[in-house]
Amino acid sequence: MFLPFFPVVLGFRGLDAAEIGLVLGIGTIARIGASPVLSNLSDRTGQRRLSILIYALAAAALLLLYFLPFGLVFVSVAVIGFMVMNAPIVPLSDAYALDVQRNTGADYARMRLWGSAGFVVASIVGGTLASEDTSWLVVVAIVLSSFATGAVAMSLPRQKRGKEKQDSDAADAATPFRSVWFWPLLTVLGLYQASHSAFYGFGTIYWQAMSVPDFAIGLLWATGVVAEIALFTVAGKLSQRFDPAIFLLAAGVAASLRWLLFPFADTLPAMAALQTLHGLSFGAAHLGAVAILARIVPSQWAGTGQGLLATSVGIQMAIGLSISGALYEVNPDWPFYLMSIVAAVGTLATLVMTPMLRRKMG
Fold first, then answer.
1. In angstroms, how far is CA 15 from the centroid of its own chain?
2. Which segments constitute the Major facilitator superfamily (MFS) profile domain (predicted)?
3. Above pLDDT 90, what percent of the chain?
């Protein structure tokens, strides 16, 4: 609800476009920085579920400041505070889910698909509420969702996280964070998601300029998420045959093809066909990146690893959006061609790094 509709909510609150951009821009920068810091704090305390509860409650409490009858400063504190405290929740949830997979053999992808399904449902509900008279209900729904997140986290069983009794110095030495090769890898993993920045920022605008009806645009977005869910449904079986590097390579090829052909899709069937590639370009990239980090980062520091991945994606996504915006002003097709090149670069880099990756994961 927050990503698609909160800019609309802020507009109904009386903020102009510049103020909305300023608040969300500062919040995005703060979120990028907060994710690895707060995730690392959770890893150091060893209280992953309790951390999710605390962060979720803090996010909800800060967002409630939105309802105070004050001006831009309080609204900014509410929104930026919410974005900061919400930042580590997904990385920590992924880290917990990976512990479950490690300890019980459960299928991470099948757990993750409910995030995609939830996004679809929340988008539909949020769309019905994002009007001037009911926009405040979007804020209430987000606050209630944060409370629910904390409650669900604490209802889950505690997970064993690898060799929890090992010496802390040895645990620190086992982390790849001080290794030179880890940071280029983190950059490449973020590159796959960053190749979607032109679409996230300008895909709807591009289709509107082609006179695609708003309802059809909604269906096109939904097609991508359904393809993503379909991949998550079968990814567990696929992972038994293919290692995470293959998932990344498949994602890179799909993304390169998707963005290269995007400007040429001038009919709804063609657009929908390209949208099905989202299952690979996003879904396979996400599964591959998460699985690689799960194998090379010790369980004790899994939250930090996932938080660093979120930061890598966030930084590169911000850069991609800025460049795409400038290119879109010159030629609307150019941002998508650039994203095709970005995906191709990520694919080539993965090919080069695959032997090293397999050694580290082995």
1. 27
2. 134-362
3. 54
